[in-house]
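[job 0412] stage=complex_fold ligand=NAP status=START
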Amino acid sequence: MTTMSRYKIDANFIGGEWKRSGDKSITVTNPATGEILGTVPSFGATETREAISAAYKTFPVYAAMPLGERIALMRKLHDALLDNRSELAALLTAEQGKPLAEAAGEISIGAAYILWFAEEIRRAKGEIIPAATPGRRMMVTHHPVGVVGAITPWNFPSSMLARKLGPALAVGCTTVVKPASQTPYSALAWGKLAEEVGFPAGTINIVTGPPREIAETLMADKRVRKITFTGSTNVGKILIRQSADTVKKVSMELGGNAPFIVFDDADLNQAIEGALVAKYRNSGQTCVCANRFYVQSGIYDAFVKKLTQKTQNLIVGDGTGAGVDQGPLIDESAFKKVSALVDDAKVKGATINTGGHPHHLGRTWYEPTVISNVTTTMRIATEEIFGPVAAIMCFENEDDVIEAANDTDFGLAAYVYTNNMVRVFRMNDRLQYGMIGINEGLITTVETPFGGIKESGLGKEGGSQGLSDYLDTKYICIGGI
Ligand code: NAP
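[job 0412] stage=complex_fold status=DONE, emitting structure tokens
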């Protein structure tokens, strides 16, 4: 049972030591069962400053470590994640709720990010620029930014951290991590793994507690040179504002509102398979989840019918159960938000094709749902649903659907199903999204830049672009040669 896992640690990791709180703590609950898994410290400004001091002191030591040694440590971390994958996945499912197979996949992709950045750092080259004047050499070099503050969400509590630790550790930065309060154990496990494989004390520090107090301490401290955040757009905007006072670098992976567009010429089966994974993975709680389905009139009825049938076959249950496709929502307030969106659509005349009710398993569960005849007057057509509800609208022509798809402040992921290759290029030119899946519903890989445009964020994670946010670029001009 996960409660016995040696990776379930009820302490914070600061300066290489595990620190427990005397009085205040955060209770961690299994969203599937309501079982209390344990507690973690509720630390504040004092401990956050301690963690920043540890990271600041360690930075010159870690940054000066020979590259080969840093890479070797990262490879060990990668291997340790995979060696302990079952145990880490069980812990993730216990605190987050996703099916075990998805949790194991999350641990694997987290390990893959670490390996990717350990490889990519070998290619983080500088430049020599031809000088316009004789007797000069002009060079561009890259340097780690320094101490990085990382704030992560509950929906991918392990892999979201991997995307931040991967580039930070590769370039030589030290870190202070503040994980989501609902899923702290998966993050604290990274502290244990880092300790076991031999990262210097103070390289990774992890603090749990009230988000505002910890974040404000990180933001106000001049020693923290970069903030990387994954979470809601509202909190991201607060952090961007706070970053101004000390002019920190920021990377922001924020909310999404992904359109999923199916043209008449699409392969129906392919579109349905893509829709299932883009909609129902993690019970619809991913930032790249399909949020608005736009289906062209010629294929609309067939798409709605088939998606309804497939959705009815999804097995809902505790993520530890065999064959389970969908677990609970993270908490009761997520459940209430999903219920309210569906109820609003019902009142305004949408058709419920399947689901549309709370699930009998309890107050964190919602039935996998398909709703058709959705219109733009319904909240579900504009808000991030973050639940297992497919909201489908019908469209007639390409210009209209592009206009509708772009009519949002968000710009993270978009999906298009078509077999018209010329249209594919038009979609790439005109859809205002940072990532576009064409005939693919699952597009995240370590080799490519993940990130949004507009109010979905700043910067990229993964790919070769994922390193640059953790590097300062310097120009050096050598004269008198
Ligand atoms: P959230 O409420 O913004 O929380 C994310 C993190 O920020 C948590 O660690 C949270 O701490 C902390 N936080 C909360 N209030 C804060 C404040 N005032 N100042 C500083 N930190 C604060 O988001 P969420 O509900 O956990 O996550 C869902 C959102 O994340 C969705 O919008 C989703 O689209 C987005 N997301 C984006 C990506 C991406 O890559 N673009 C990936 C995953 C998720 P506590 O847990 O202690 O409250």
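The longest strand covers residues 137-144.
[job 0412] exit 0
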